Each structure stands twice: as C-alpha cells, then as structure tokens.
Amino acid sequence: REEDVVQTENLTTCMLVVPSGQKKEFVRTYETWANFSFISDDNGGRTNHISIVVPRSAKVLAEDKDYLLYRVVVLSKMVDTFKTTAREKGFQVRDFTFDPEAQHEQEESSEQMKQECADLEQQLVDWSLTAYKEILSSWMHMLTIRVFVESILRYGLPPSFQAAVIKPNKRCEVKVRAVLANQFGKHVSNHWKRSQDDQGGKGPGGAGAGGAGDQDVYPYVSFTVNFNK
User: Fold this and answer.
1) Are the beta carbons of 216 and 206 closer than 8 angstroms?
2) Mind listing the UniProt keywords for this protein, alphabetically (predicted)?
C-alpha cells in the first residue's frame, strides 16, 4: 500500500524477508546494524553517531508460516550499507521500485476482479437454486413412478393401494416400521408370502431411493429418501 512506502529525498524504504524463527532477533537489533557519523559544530567539533534506520520503522507487510516481509525506513545515502549488513546477517533484501500509478491500477484491477468474482458467485447460487428445484422435482416424479410400478408388481391388478409420505423422528423409526408391518403384514399378496418362504422370511420389498439392492425389505412398498447425503 502507498502509506507503507516512504520515499523522500533523505529517506527510502527497504524490504527484508525474515525467517519466522529470527523475528525476535531482527526486531531487537535492526536499529543498531549501522550508524551514520558526522561532526557537529554545536558539540565542540565532536563526532556524533546516529542510526541509519528510522526508529520503530519496521512493519510486517506480509507473512506465512515460514517467513515475514518487513518494511524498514533508512537514510537514502546509507541504504547500500544497510542492505549489505542485512545480507551479512542472513536476511534477504528484496529490491523494488514503487510506482504510485501502477499501484493504483493494480488496486483498481483487484477491485474489479473481486466484483466480477462476486457477480459470478451470485450467478452460480441463482443457477444452483433453480437446478436444485428442477432436479428435486424430477427425482420425486421418478420415485412416484417407482412406487406405482412396485405396487402393481406387489399387489397386482387392478390398482388398489394408497401412497403416503412419512417423516418419522429418527429415534422412532424402528417403532414406526413395526406399526406399519403389523398393519399391512396381514394383507400381503400371495406373491409376497411365497417369496418370504423361498428366502427364509424375506421377500421383495423396499429399497433406497437411489435404486434397488441389498436393502431391508418390508411387507409393503417402501422407499427411503435421504436429503442428508
């Protein structure tokens, strides 16, 4: 960001890559890596030493689990000295040129991409809702046809049966199955009884909503619709 970069006649910005394990050492020592010496007439002609680094100018701009990218502001005339010292201490220096116009264009492009992404996401949500309704309607239609066909195969012609949708509490499912079996098991077809005898008490019955297979069987036509899968 523009506010993270200091670029004046006397100050400049350096970017350093610091390993996560050396973060504390870097923060503790970076201000003392190099000094700028000058003679002051106000101090009796003595040589004064000041740090070439602006105090507390280190700022984390980005990081991951292994590294941190720090911004440090230093004296422009001493930037090469600071970079050399940083490399000697094992830190990576990243050269960069800050271009306000390019930065502005990049920010605009980023905002445009975010907006396009949001628009596409909304389109996907709208399409998914429409498709879900159509798929669910088609699925229920197929199940209705299967109930009719299975009932004809089970009870024969002419059609004489009643279809119903039951949503039992999960804890009461076994009890509901027992009540249904007791209610309708007394009037099963001869085909069901013969099949039960042939298969040791099991006959052709219900299957999962996705298709037939090794499913539990009941003395009535049953299909399970599971919306949680």
Assistant:
1) yes
2) Coiled coil, Hydrogen ion transport, Ion transport, Transport
